[in-house]
Specification:
Helix 6 runs antiparallel to helix 7 and helix 6 runs parallel beside helix 8. The N terminus is likely disordered. The termini are far apart. Helices cover about 65% and strands about 0% of the residues. The protein is globular. Bound molecules: benzoyl coenzyme A (BYC). Benzoyl coenzyme A binds next to helix 2, helix 6 and helix 9. The site of benzoyl coenzyme A has 28 residues, from helix 2, helix 6 and helix 9.
Amino acid sequence: MQDTVRGSDAAPPTSEDAGRLAEFEARIANGESIEPKDWMPERYRKQLVRMMSQHAHSEIVGMLPEGNWITRAPSLRRKMILLAKVQDEAGHGLYIYCGTETLGVSRDELVDQLLTGKAKYSSIFNYPTLSYADVGVIGWLVDGAAIVNQTVLAKASYGPYARAMVRICKEENFHKRQGYELVAHLANGTPAQRAMVQDAVNRWWWPSLMMFGPHDKDSPNSDDLLRWRVKRFTNDELRQRFVNLTVPQARAVGLTLPDPDLRYDEETKNWEFGPIDWSEFWAVVRGDGPCNRERLAARNKAHAEGAWVREAAAAYAAKHSRQEMAAD
Ligand code: BYC
């Protein structure tokens, strides 16, 4: 399994560690950023490696569902938009892998964990994209959910992660807008286009809510992450924020969300929603979602086919370093 952060790996703190820990926590309480060369508790480092590497993998695997439609985009304009978006996701993965490397773990190791199925990545990318409307709905709902989550992560206590999030969120905003624009276009289109986009919303709504992770009571990592201000809000709080933002957007384009229990609560000012199917969520997280095997197979194939590029880049770097040494 991926580097675990639970239980026995935490050695009992020595008095020196206790002093350093207090100093570290005081810095976090003071709103300071933790940087790669700063002292940090091993558990903080491991939590970040776990979360950031899962995030990087999600960006990389996340290229696959939409990438599926690049060759079949309905117009040149749509193809250019989709190409740019999918390419952005690759960039996001690379920033976050670089950020994770500052914690003393190599990208090769992280990629190996993904390719061998040891690492997790977001459950959402294990669902199929059945029509072009899915491209719009992913931009609107999936990138929309990512923005809610990542805007907060842009204030995370670990500097390299927070800075990557600032840049990524700017691009995610473009992703969400292009998605909503496509959704609105289809929702105002022919009856067949309307039906197609409603069908996509029906399939992606619940998986989008699952992106925020399990209920707070079932979230073993939240205590550490909240205490050390990697997370600023809980899974349930961010999920509710997403629902509150999204319901009016669905109404504005005349689409319905597939939840008969959805209702506005005047007292809490929240859109209350029905129960999430957690058995489906855990099945997908365990590897039994509709496309888990297909996604891993696609990543392994791409990695194998890219071997010559890595070899060429390594040979080029070696040649240049030899030339630089000879010139010195
Ligand atoms: N899917 O204790 P919890 C994108 C796991 S890509 C799979 O609450 P935590 C985009 C969790 O890892 C953006 N697994 O965990 C790209 C943990 O297992 P381990 C993706 C999940 O970390 C392309 C266990 O369940 N965003 O936007 O406190 C195209 C218990 O959970 C999921 C990020 O990666 C899940 N949904 O909170 C379009 C955001 N949820 O590791 C768009 C960064 C939970 O203990 N990550 N698990 O074995 C986070 O914010 C947090 O890690 C989470 C989970 C909220 C996801």
